[in-house]
Amino acid sequence: MIIDETPWQHPYDAKAFSVRVIQKCMLGEYDEAIRICDEAIKLKPNDGLPYGRRGNVKNQISDFRGAIQDCNIAIEKSSGDAYAWFTRGIAKRALEDFGGAMKDFLKAVELDPNMVKRYFNRNYAKYILGDKTGVFNTSQKDYRSRLL
């Protein structure tokens, strides 16, 4: 699938923008993915989506502090963006801020209970924090309820 090089031709192109960023990351073209996000931010500075996507790219290149900064902006602009909360949780987990990661994963699950990988990451943070009671049973129950 080839996506037009303009990141945002009109407000409904957010999905195409996200796909382009994902494609560039899959090709290992992280600088280009960040450039696309930067361009989208210039075009729609009040939209949290491109900040959250840029945060995800920064996670992939191990710029975890940069990812957290971008996700903070995304959450400030759109607190209901489960993806930004999840992405920030991944960065916090990588920096071994398991308590902060746990809070972000819980918020992501609250906002979008159908994304199964959020449960895994939430339970991983619980496990690292020493809350081993019921982590795996909770995981299995959560996964089944979302998949069935």
Quick recap of the structure?
The chain is mostly helical.
Structural overview:
It is a single chain. The chain is mainly alpha-helical and 148 residues long. The chain has one domain: Tetratricopeptide repeat domain (Serine Threonine Protein Phosphatase 5, Tetratricopeptide repeat). The chain is 72% helix and 0% strand. α3 runs parallel beside α5 (82-94).
Radius of gyration: 16 Å
Please identify, by name, the CATH architecture.
Alpha Horseshoe
Mean pLDDT: 80
Q: Major sheet, described briefly?
A: none
Helix share, percent: over 70%
Count of distinct structural domains: 1
- Beta strand %: under 5%
Oligomer: single chain
Helices, strands, pairings?
Blueprint: H1 14-26, H2 30-43, H3 49-60, H4 64-77, H5 82-94, H6 98-111, H7 116-128, H8 135-147
Helix pairs in contact: 1-2, 1-3, 2-3, 3-4, 3-5, 4-5, 5-6, 6-7, 7-8
